[in-house]
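From the shared-data thread, chain only:
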Amino acid sequence: MEDLKELEEERRSADPMYARSVPEGTASGEMCTFLIINISSLQLIPVNMIAYRSRYGSRMPMAIVGPALVITLVTTLVAVVFCRERQNLELKRREAQKWRWQNRGMQNRGMPGQESWTDGNAGGGRL
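Structure, as tokens:
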């Protein structure tokens, strides 16, 4: 997590627009991905379940391994897809914010030689 924090600080110093749009202390996309993969129960061999099943007299305590691997794969895949889509959405939002910031004075200007429709001088149906 310390490496991810350093990465976030490098991002803030490199891109002033990023530093303005994301408050200090906000988790980065990589931090969220790391957390969600951990939450999605990435577990290759369910040792505790095997131990419980053998303790309580199951004939085949290892029968849980196959379904557990499938479920772990599915939940991890869903978590990674969710994180990627969320990061893409955030990237698009930042790009739109950057575009709006760069073009903040360009609204309602119209073509050269035409009046703006907001200044009340459009008249005759012209926009």
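Helices lie at 2-14, 16-21, 29-39, 47-55, 65-102.
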